[in-house]
Structure formats: C-alpha cells, structure tokens
Sequence to fold (456 residues):
Amino acid sequence: MRNAPAPNHNGGFYQRDRAWHPPAFTPNYKTSVLRSPKHALLSLNNTLSEMTGPVFGHAMLGELDNDLIRNYATTGDAIGPRIIVHGRVLDEDGRPVPGALLEYWQANAGGRYRHKKESYLAAIDPNFGGCGRSITDEEGRYWFRTIKPGAYPWPNGVNDWRPAHIHFSIFGHAFAQRLITQMYFEGDPMIWQCPIVMGIPDKAAVAQLVAALDREATIPMDTLAYKFDIVLRGRRSTMFENRMEGN
Amino acid sequence: MVQSLSRLKESPSQTAGPYVHIGTTPNFIGINHVYAQDLGLAPCPAAAKGQRIIITGQVFDGSGAVLRDALLELWQADADGLYPGRGEHRGAADPNFPGWFRQPVDGVSGIYRFETIKPGAVPFIDGRKMAPHVTLWIVARGINIGLHTRMYFPDEAAANEADPIFTRFELRARLATLVAARDGEEDGVPVYRFDIHLQGDKETIFFDI
Fold:
C-alpha cells in the first residue's frame, strides 16, 4: 500500500481576499469614482487561461537594468539619497517565486517623474530615467539600486501629496498572479495621509507595503538599504482532487 | 487556541497611476536609453502559425469619456489552443508565438491595438471546450486593482453558445459585453473591435479569477 501522491501545487490559485486589497470605488481617490465597476465581479474558477503565464528569461536583462543611478545617466550619477531595495517574491505559502519579472518605476529625488504628462515644477534630473527591472533568482530574491524618490503634490484634493513611493509591476508564474502595487518607506508620516494608500481598508495590509530600513544590507559610507518582500497568490495542491488531465 | 496556518497575505494592490509607461513601456514615452525595446509591444512574429487578426478598441469610464492613460495586457493560447510559457502541460505551444502582448492606449485617441493570431479553443476545468477567447488585463490611474476580462469572437456563435462560462451566466443580458464586433479588415487581416466600459449601462463583465 502507498499513500496518494504528495501534493504538487498545480491546482487553482487561492481565492483573492478582496477585503485585503483596496476596493474599486474609493471616493477620496477621486479618479476611482468613474473608473470603478459597479457590478459584482464574476467569480471564475481558474482555467488554463488563468493558470498559465508568460516566461521572461534572465537573458533579456541588461547589466544596468537594476541600477537606476546609472541606467539613464550620461554626465554623472543620478542625484539623491543612494539606496538599495531588495527582498524576495514569495507566494502565500511562503514558497519563493523564482523567475518572477519585476518592473519598477519612480519619481526622482525631487518628486518629479520623467513623463510628458507630468507638470510638477520640481527639476528634472538629466541623469535619471526612473525605470528598472529584475527577474528573481532561484530563491525568489531581487535587488536594485536607485535614489530615494521625493514626495510630490497631485491634483486630487487641493493640497494632496503622495508619500515617497516606488511602483512595482510583478509577473509570477500565472496570469492569475498578475499584480501592480507600490512600495512606501518606513517612518514616512505621509503614508497615512494619502487617499490612494488609505483606500486599503486594513492597516496591517498597508504595513505590508512599507519597506523596512535594513541596516545590515547597507553599504557603509555609500548606500542605505530597504527590504521589501512581495507576496503573490498561493496555489492549491491537487492531492485527492479529480481534475481532467492537463487542467 | 489553535495552531497557526502560517500563510502569508497577498501584497495589496495599488493603482498603476498615470506614469505606468515609465516602468512598462518607457520607449513609448521617449525614455529611450534604458531598454532596447518595450516589452510586449512588438506585433506577433510573422512566423507564428494561425489566422492573423487585429484587436482594437477603447476603454471608457462611467461618464463615457475615453481613457487616455490605460495599459492593457493580452494573454492567449496559440492557434492550436496551447499556451506558451508556464503552466501548460498538454504539449509544446508554437515556439514563434509569445502569447503575451502589452499595449498602452494612444495618449490622444485612447485607441489600443493588438496584432496577434486567432487562438484555438482551450479546455475548461471539466474537459469541455471553451470558445476561443483572449484574456485581457486593464490597469490605469483610478483603477485600484487590475481588471480581468475576456474577449470572445463574434464569428464563433456556436462555440460561444456552448462555452461553459456563457452557459453558466445568470446575466445573459451582459454577455454581449464579452463579444467583440467584426470591423472589416486591413490588408486582408480581420479586425475585431472590443471596447471596454469600466462602468455604466454597458459595463463590461470583469472576472474575479
């Protein structure tokens, strides 16, 4: 006699906890008012269309893709506090997600984005583009070097400011895991005044987006470091589950 | 008291914001020195097997205004119904077909445009065939968590009728929001128009997947 095979984690993804995410309609973030679906989302058990996803190979990366201090620079390093951002991409079971593509983008140290629709008066840094990307290693780790972005005002309330943040777009192993989020910085009081952040109902969920100052990962006399782990949806095992072959 | 399950929570979503192009399609907005090309922006390679098609449309808000800052991603099977990438265990997909594309809408007209091939049918969980479809994911300023939908084909009426999702729906009146409209052809390539309505009378069906 033998036991049934060990779970292989090829099942559908855990149901997304919508109470942990910001709802579509967050009226204090005014743009969401007309861009939020009013009907309930239609629940769909994962099929192959959701359980599959594109693969991005390390070969596509350039040497400076994860160095925002240098990857746009022509006359010198980008201006601003030098930081390393590092962490792991895990699933909800705590397993590392290797091969995950992370794309990140941010404002410069003065809070100015390099974008034609951006009109904030803070100066453009000629040596800062504001984008980078990484693919996680076998242990789910990623790391990049950048400058700490500045806070900036935005047209929502008459005097609303975004806390310093870095945007992240993450591809896990399946389209069902696709996620865009933002990383904030430990100790920033503006996090708790931001209408976009405060769309997240649970303070513990907000805390999950606040990177910790990581003294042990700093480079002495050179660069500070922040640790930011990202969690993607976990996956059901298929033990004792009758699924058609290939699903 | 009880043992802890020791599970983690998914990182909460935050809006892609108005400057999503900086991180995803920097060349599209003139940040040209960093990546050789924008990921997902190239049309389907000529060597890919299958009927070439164009999928185009606009994204509308609840007042009927066109979004000019949205980003769309498309994920689909190859012409034989096999997915490239991870998670496909039935066989190898067409090596010339990426399956995944990304398009920012035009900054003035709000029009998006994918040049791809028509996907084959893919099985549902119970083995029945789903009608040919592409999966779309929409992010933008004001969208707090990316929206998943599907586009089905107007010239697959019989397959659509038999699709396990279509037959399940209580909301039959809204099913039409998932079916593209045939909009002629360009140089012999069929054009499908698929408008996405975030809100309002024509609100598109979005999925919790």
